[in-house]
Amino acid sequence: AQKITQTQPGMFVQEKEAVTLDCTYDTSDPSYGLFWYKQPSSGEMIFLIYQGSYDQQNATEGRYSLNFQKARKSANLVISASQLGDSAMYFCAMRDFLYNQGGKLIFGQGTELSVKP
Amino acid sequence: DTEVTQTPKHLVMGMTNKKSLKCEQHMGHRAMYWYKQKAKKPPELMFVYSYEKLSINESVPSRFSPECPNSSLLNLHLHALQPEDSALYLCASSQGPGTGFPEYGYTFGSGTRLTVV
């Protein structure tokens, strides 16, 4: 069975510093997709970044980058130059490719990030 | 239009009431999902509709009844709920049943905060 693990329930970072949020995964499927979502206290789930299992390069989106180490089965999110608005819950997720049934998104437990001024 | 719209944003209902949650998307996505999320926890998948047919029911109690009247609309009918059903209910959509477009993740709505009294 597929599994996503986030071992940091909460983290603090100083404004303007970089922070790494850890995510490890387990799957026997050679084809998979990894996502990071941000969820502020308002509740909406905001897509940040995606990494496909066959992608050769690490994904980047603005201040977000994904440190993908396939052999170690890790997909850590790096946020550069943290801002106060980055304070939120962050979820790592994996897409289970269920053909003809609809993909099933499996979430880790989440990391609550607090950015200090 | 790149949004998933959920209504209402907040709902308080008694244990004997019947209510419905509504979710709408106009992105041409053919898979739609209902997730339940408790505070500080990851979303838990409830139902998946693929091409307007129910494809996954994660053993959800029958007091929750999903409906997909057309490819743009997803409803969740609620009846005889319990206080422990109080949660954030998230709707999401994705392009297809997971084949060929793994880079297209899920688009989430802002959720309905449900309180059962």
What does this structure look like?
- The complex is a heterodimer of chains A (117) and B (117).
- Chain A is an all-beta fold and 117 residues long.
- Chain A is 0% helix and 52% strand.
- Chain A is built from no helices and twelve strands.
- In chain A, strands 2, 5, 6, 10, 11 and 12 form a six-stranded mixed sheet that branches. Chain A has a four-stranded antiparallel sheet with strand order 3-9-8-7, with no helix packed on it. A two-stranded antiparallel sheet of chain A has the order 1-4.
- The model of chain A has no long low-confidence stretch (mean pLDDT 91).
- With 117 residues, chain B is mainly β.
- Chain B is built from no helices and eleven strands.
- In chain B, strands 2, 4, 5, 6, 9, 10 and 11 form a seven-stranded mixed sheet that branches. A four-stranded antiparallel sheet of chain B has the order 1-3-8-7, with no helix packed on it.
- In chain B, strand 7 (64-70) and strand 8 form a beta hairpin.
- At the A-B interface, strand 5, strand 6, strand 10 and strand 11 of A face strand 5, strand 9 and strand 10 of B.
